[in-house]
Amino acid sequence: MALAASTALAAPMSLKIAFVDPLSGGGASTGEAGLKTFQFMADQLNAKNADLKLEVTGYDNKLNPQESLVQLQKAIDSGARVVVQGNGSSVGAALIDFVGKYNDRNPGKEILYLNYAAVDPALTNAKCNYWHFRFDANSDIKMQALTNYIKGKPEIKKVYLINQDYSHGQAVRAAARAMLKEKRPDIQIVGDEVAPLQKVNDFSPYIAKIKASGADTVITGNWAQDMALLLKAAGDAGLQANFYTYYGGGSGGPTAIKQANLPDRVFQISEGYANIDYKPAHDFEAAFRAKTGQEVTYARVVNLMNVLSKATLAAKSTDPKAIAKAMDSIHQDTLYGKDSFIRPDDHQIFQPIYISRFGPVDTAKVLDSENTGWGWTGTGEIAAQDTLLPTTCKMDRPS
């Protein structure tokens, strides 16, 4: 009996995590990269912490809000207590609503929604919810940093905006217009287009308009297929504008940049990149590439999983209510060794933001991307405290 009790006490806490994101269709490459990163991190953390076992299972939502709710219910029925999602703010909004209502109806059986990439500002403002935590800078935070950088580039005179026609894309274009007008009123916005989300197979007509406009700079929040195909069309048309992107480094993006022959013309604003000078991150990158055959495109997933593990161990419980309480204002070093923190007012994470650009590198000294011989190098860094923007969130907290 004593041996049985000892064995029971030694059993690790088990937490099932449902990954609900596209694993088919135009967003599949991005979804698959995210799932691999979550599962790699689960393995790493399980090996490190004998007291905790994390299990990540993928559920294909086909980038559809309604299908996401169907898949989430399947995950809950299978014992998942945490849902992670990032691709599509329309999906994010649907999950926030579902999780809030589900938890109200099922006290003691709550679930937690950890958002790693859905960046519509509304999700931590008007639509904020106690059970939702965001681990990526929202699109306004990114645009604030990006336009601060552009402010110091007098060579930028004509800007073309092209984005996806849903809440994230609309948020990017609105923030770009407002912030450029404030910081660089001399810049002309010579075009402002939206395209159907992950449904355009040829961006040539859009690129023709950009080329005809005389734009020297393109700003886009496009991701996955919509990013890669936009760059491919730019290369085919010989467009030599600079591209300021949110997701140029996503799966397929680096290859498209190289094929488009746009050396040092594509910039990305993100929470990190492979060639930041920090050895533990380099070691992690090497291990990840060796195991998965891909590079780290989701440093924020690494950060999310480290925060989740820390909060669960601190709570000594896998109860989402206990985890959320421990996570509410948590601090945790990022993959790149810098402090990040959750703001309790809206559950938005704040972390350093980096601006990098993609071009030829000496692969004997630094890492390239997608075996192109080109890689990301830094052009700017914004401290976490300098990314703070106010929130309108009025959060109802459980008693």
Structure description:
Pfam families: Peripla_BP_6 (PF13458). Belongs to the leucine-binding protein family. Keywords: Amino-acid transport, Signal, Transport. Strand 6 (158-164), helix 6 and strand 7 form a beta-alpha-beta unit. It is built from twelve helices and 15 strands. It is of the alpha/beta class. The chain has helices spanning 2-10, 28-48, 65-77, 89-105, 139-151, 167-183, 204-213, 225-237, 253-259, 279-292, 299-315, 320-327; strands at residues 13-21, 52-60, 82-85, 112-115, 132-134, 158-164, 188-195, 217-220, 242-245, 266-270, 331-333, 339-343, 348-350, 353-360, 374-382. The strands form three sheets. Strands 7-6-8-9-10-14-15 form a seven-stranded mixed β-sheet, sandwiched between helices. A five-stranded parallel β-sheet has the order 2-1-3-4-5, sandwiched between helices. It has a three-stranded antiparallel β-sheet with strand order 11-12-13, covered by helices on one side. 40% of the residues lie in helices and 21% in strands. The mean pLDDT is 96. The chain is globular and about 65 Å long.
Structural shape: globular
- Tell me the β content: 15-25%
| Structural class by helix and strand composition | alpha/beta
Rounded to the nearest angstrom, the radius of gyration is 21 Å
Helix % is 25-40%
Strand tally: 15
What is the rounded distance between the termini?
39 Å
Order of strands across the biggest sheet? Answer: 7-6-8-9-10-14-15
Elements, N to C (H/E): HEHEHEHEEHEHEHEHEHEHHHEEEEE
What's the tally of helices?
12
The low-confidence runs, each spanning 5 or more residues with pLDDT under 50, are none
Q: Main beta sheet: strand number and arrangement? A: 7 strands, mixed
Average residue pLDDT = 96
